[in-house]
Amino acid sequence: MTGPRRFAVRVYYEDTDSGGVVYYANYLRFLERARTELLRSLGVEQAQLARDAGIAFAVRSLQVEYVKPARLDDLIEVATTIGELGRAQVVFLQRIEREGELLVDATVRVACLDLAKGRAAAMPKNIHEKLKELT
């Protein structure tokens, strides 16, 4: 198993509520960006995948534990690993940290979808193999 993939995020004013604390839903955006960058680091461009193969990834379920708040101007890091890998879905284990301190702990189940049929489909073999290397 390889270590987690890490993605740095600066907290901007637009990410926060009136108290300067990150609004809870914006953590989901940070998690999404980190998963997208993980795929990109493996050579998977989601727009191209949708266009050329008619395949997309969509969140099926998620569990989020908000532990501590991030604040305006914080530099936070999203650590992403693979928890489970099936042919049509992958479970990402994600943590948002500030200087090693846990802020958010999330488990995100993502399904691979056939866009034309609107239902689950096996992910392309090359993508599955690349994700398997991360487990």
UniProtKB/TrEMBL annotation:
InterPro entries, A to Z: 4-hydroxybenzoyl-CoA_TE, HotDog_dom_sf, Tol-Pal_acyl-CoA_thioesterase, YbgC/YbaW
Keywords: Hydrolase
Molecular function terms, GO-annotated: fatty acyl-CoA hydrolase activity
The keyword Hydrolase is annotated on this UniProt entry: yes
Regions crossing the membrane: none
Family: Belongs to the 4-hydroxybenzoyl-CoA thioesterase family.
NCBIfam families the record matches: thio_ybgC, YbgC/FadM family acyl-CoA thioesterase
PANTHER family: 4-HYDROXYBENZOYL-COA THIOESTERASE FAMILY MEMBER, ACYL-COA THIOESTER HYDROLASE YBGC
Protein name according to UniProt: Acyl-CoA thioester hydrolase
Organism of provenance: Sulfurisoma sediminicola
